[in-house]
Amino acid sequence: MRKRLLVLLALLLIGCTTAAAAAEPGILYTQPLESVIFRHQDHAQEGSACVVCHTGLFEMEALRVQKNKDYNMDSLYKGKYCGACHNGKKAFAADTQCARCHLGSGLPAPPKDTPPYKKSVVLGKGEQSVTFYHEVHAKKTTCRSCHPSLFKPGEGTTRVRMADHGGGRFCFGCHSGRNKDAFAWSDCSRCHRKSVPAPGETIHFGKGTKAVPFRHGSHQLKGGCKVCHPRPFAYRKGAAKIDFDDHRNRKACFACHAKKNGSAFYDCNRCHQDKPAAKPGGPDTLKYQTPWKNVYFHHESHSGFSCTACHPAPFAMKKGKTKMVMSDMLRGKTCGVCHNGTKAFSARECARCHKK
Predict the structure, then answer these.
(1) Which fold has domain 203-270?
(2) Which of 172, 212, 247, 343 registers the highest number of CB atoms within 10 A of its CB?
(3) Residue 289: Cβ-neighbour burial (10 angstroms; 0-12, 13-18, 19+)
(4) Which residues of the chain have pLDDT under 50?
C-alpha cells in the first residue's frame, strides 16, 4: 500500500511539473546577444534530464550565467554552455542556425529550414555602397567564420574604411588576395558595382605652378588598384609627400616610372609642365659670383642632357647647396665632370664661363 502511495505521489509531482513547464513563458536572455528565449519544455520534450544542464553548465538561478565573463558566442562555439549540445551532432549547431534561437522577444519559433540570416545586407551608403549576400558565402563557410570576430551582430551598420581593405579586417580577412577561394579586395568592381572603379577628379601633388597633376583614368593598369594602393600610396587624398630623392629611389610614382619598367623619371617635362628650363638671362638663370668675373649657368643650354646627369650628384637640387671650387673642377669634380675637354669644352677655357 505504501509503495502504491509513493508511485501516485511521484506521478502527481511529474504532472504538476509538466503543467508548470507547459505554462512557462520562457527565460529571456540578453547576453551574449539580445532576444534569446529559452523554454524548459522545448528541451524536456527531447527526453533530456535536468542533470544534463544543471551539473556544471548552468546554475539553478535563472540568468545567473550571464554574469560570467566567458559567456559569449565564442565559448558556445568551443562547446561550453549551450554549445555542449548545440554542436551539430546532439542538436543543431550554434554557428549555423542562428535564427533558431535569436528570435526577438515574443516571436514564434521559425520553421527549421528558415535561413539564419537576412539574404542581403547593404554596407555603406550611396554609390560606394556594397551589397553582401549571405547565401553566396554560406556555401563555402559557416557563420562563425565572420561572427562575432569580424562582424558583431546587433551593432548596426558596420563602418568599413578604405584603410581596412589591406589590413585583414572585416571582409578582407578572406578577400586578402592570399585566399584562393575568395577574389582579392583590389578587384574593386566585384563589390562596388554602382560606382566608378576610380575617382575622376585630378589630384595635384605639390603646390603652385610646380604642382604635378595626376589622373586615375590614364593610370588604370592591368593589375588593378593594388598596384598603387595601399602602397606606395595610401587611399587618403593628400597623405603622400614626394621629394626629389624619391625620384631615384623607386618610391612613390617612381616605383613604376623608372628606366626599366616605365617612363623614365628624368623625363621631367612629362609631369612638370610649368616651364621646361630656365631661359638665358631670365630670372631663373643661376648666377655664381667669383673674385674674377661672374659665371652664369643656363639650364636651357644644357637641356640636351637628362636631369640625372647633374642631379642630385654632382649638384644638389637646392640652389647654392653645392660648394664649387675651381681646383675641384680641374680635378674632374662639379662642372669638371663634363667640362674636361672631352665631353665638353675644358674648364680651363675661363672666358667661356667667366663673364661680366
Answers:
(1) Cytochrome C3 (3.90.10)
(2) 247
(3) exposed
(4) 5-23, 105-107, 110, 277-281
